[in-house]
Amino acid sequence: MMLPPNMANKGPSYGMSREVQSKIEKKYDEELEERLVEWIIVQCGPDVGRPDRGRLGFQVWLKNGVILSKLVNSLYPDGSKPVKVPENPPSMVFKQMEQVAQFLKAAEDYGVIKTDMFQTVDLFEGKDMAAVQRTLMALGSLAVTKNDGHYRGDPNWFMKKAQEHKREFTESQLQEGKHVIGLQMGTNRGASQAGMTGYGRPRQIIS
């Protein structure tokens, strides 16, 4: 039976399915894409062009690593740009991947933490474009937080990194935090050993 066209692409809408959950966790965000595209153009200048809308367009735009390299370079003063950008965009796959890897290294040196970094294949094979967005968001947040004159664009596009919040914890609060974790570890250890027999002792089978 053919579904009417307006229903054909709507899946069943039941509660919080696993699929919905994973979309929330890993979702490629089209609104975020718009913000990131605007920022990259403002930050690098109009010669980087503009991608087609959507995940694929965004991937194709960034895939050879040149725009990403220009982006991270734009956050540094002249004379200390971390990534060499070739005159002509690389066409060979390994050169493109190398360019992306250079961007990732420079982003990490800039301060993006490992858990916010995408892997080259996430971008190159489009495996996880949400991770690419996460890296760019982290980079933008750092640039706004550093406030060293190299960030261009609206500072409200990114949330400042919460560096300043660290100072708000008192020593006793930090100690309390350690204590809570310690307790949890303790209870986990107790729980995992329950019901285990010692090594070498036969298990009792009650018939």
From TrEMBL:
It holds the Pfam family Calponin. GO terms for cellular component: cytoplasm. One of its GO terms (biological process) is epithelial cell differentiation. Keywords: Acetylation, Cytoplasm, Muscle protein. Residues 30-143 form the Calponin-homology (CH) domain. SUPFAM superfamilies: Calponin-homology domain, CH-domain. The keyword Cytoplasm applies. CDD domains: CH_TAGLN. InterPro entries: Calponin-like, Calponin_repeat, CH_dom, CH_dom_sf, SM22_calponin. Its main location: cytoplasm. It is found in: Cytoplasm. Belongs to the calponin family. PANTHER family: CALPONIN, TRANSGELIN. This is Transgelin. It comes from Papio anubis (Olive baboon). The lineage of its organism: Eukaryota, Metazoa, Chordata, Craniata, Vertebrata.
